[in-house]
Amino acid sequence: MTSKFAVDLPISADQPSLAGPSGTGSGGTRVLGALTLVGIALVAFLAFVATPADSDMGDTVRLIYVHVPIVSVAYLGIVIATIGSIAFLWKRSEWWDLVASSSAEVSAVLMGLTLVVGMIWGKPTWGVYWVWDARLTSTLVLFLLLLGYQAVRRTSVDPWVRGKRSAIVGLLLLPNVLIVNRSVEWWRSLHQEPTLLRLDPTIEGLQLFTLVLAIGVTALMFVWLAVHRFRLAWLQDRVDRRLLVDAIEDRRSEVTV
Amino acid sequence: MFRDAALVAGKDLRIELRSRVAINQVLPLAVLLLVLFAFALDPDTGLLVRATPGLFWIATVLCGLLAVQRAFAVETADGVTDGLRLSALDTGGLFLGKAAAVALQLIVLQALLLAGVVVLYDAAPSGWLMLVVTCGTATAGIAAAGTLFGVLAAGVRVRETLLPLLLLPVLAPVLLAATRAFEAAFEGRSSEGWPWVGLLAAFALVYIVAGLFGFGALLEES
Predict the structure, then answer these.
(1) DSSP β-bridge partners for residue A58
(2) What stretches in chain B show pLDDT beneath 70?
(3) Domain-embedded: residue A185
(4) What is the DSSP letter of A54?
(5) CA angle, B26 then B161 then A144, to 5°
(6) Residue A10 falls within a domain, yes or no?
(7) ipTM
């Protein structure tokens, strides 16, 4: 090979091999997955069979055991995404970039589900799918912000460019959440009667236990999904870079022959 | 930094003055929006007057989006971004300059829109102090957030669609707060409007700080 073609590409410094893991599962994630599935089965039993129906809301109250956990864990994921973005800008490591993006992606799915579950609950309870309640509105805006973050992720294949762009958007997620929540709460409280969405404050005993367990199980599920998403993204980056290195080597061999 | 900002703002405003895109296209578009709102909401029912603050700010945000897109369209052509980076201007100053140019165009636009709603919608604005302060803080927020996301989207092939998707949800609190502050001013209840102005100021501050630190890193990749 002549030096003429030894182009100094940043990617050629570290040529990743494809001889790594071929899947995203490992012993740890299998245990995690099994625990999650058992937990979901347990929560389903408690939520549908063991706990009583609400005197006012009837069976629809059981949706709380899905709704509250997924929205809480989605917020947790956003906090992780912001921390990951800050850590990426500080440490400049691909690891943190993928932590942030995997958390944000799973959070986006959970936020979407929160909205859907909320609407399914809203129709029989309020008679409408949607009300312009503070919490609903801020959740919707937040969901759209997360979609914007996902769009930024897809703008570049260069991990460094992609990481920097999405880290700055990710860094601003948390301040945005705070500003959106504040503004929407003022908006509704100044102009409308108090929020309709009020969970029964006297939740206790088995119902409280079910809810806490459901939050724990959902957090486990979040970790499970995020770890798989992280590993998938990691492998995808390796494959992309490997293909590029292979293509460059093919071209070089054509010339030297 | 401020001298650099003044240079960049001066450059952008001179380009806008000479190309006349803002005057010949964006300002007429703002008037057109006012006309379209009147078609959508029946002017005879009083709905239009009641909705005036909201419509004013929707028109401002949409035109702001165009101003931001314009501000970076002139940079991405012919590798001007590389020239800017080579010019050794302070990146914080670059950010402030571009944001200031967008802000100034938006202020001119808002003056026209305000005249437009008075003439076309028969709106009777009052509480001028509140109106001016709201316009100032909201415009600072729109320009700062717009400039930050504008440079992020500038180097991307899908920038025309990416920028609205990123920017509009972020600007939702600005739209909300500025509309409420305007409503309070129009109805002579200024005391209710000041918390909203505070929120606008906080938003502007967050994005000015984020822009001062993040703009340089994003400019490298555009």
Answers:
(1) A54
(2) 221-222
(3) yes
(4) B
(5) 110
(6) no
(7) 0.85
In a domain, A106, yes or no: yes
B195–A156 C-beta distance less than 8 A = no
Residue A54 lies in a domain: no
Q: What's the total number of domains in chain A?
A: 1
Give residue B215's domain range.
2-221
Residue entry with tokens 């997620």:
A173
- Tell me the nearest-neighbour CA distance from B165 into chain A, angstroms: 6
Cβ-nearest to A145 among B157, B169, B180: B169
Output the DSSP codes for B39-84.
HHS-GGGTHHHHHHHHHHHHHHHHHHHHHHHHHHHHHHGGGHHHHH
What domain count does chain B have? 1
Q: What is the pTM of this model?
A: 0.84
A155: phi then psi, degrees, rounded to nearest 5: -85, -20
DSSP A132-199: --HHHHHHHHHHHHHHHHHHHHTT-S-HHHHHHHHHHHHHTHHHHHHHHHHHHHHHHHHHSSSPS---
What does the pLDDT look like over A187-244, one tens digit per residue?
A: 776 544 444 445 555 566 788 888 889 999 999 999 999 999 999 988 888 888 888 8
Q: Containing domain of residue A185, as a range?
A: 64-248
d(CA B17, nearest CA chain A) in Å:
32
- The closest CB to that of B221, out of A147, A164, A182, belongs to A164
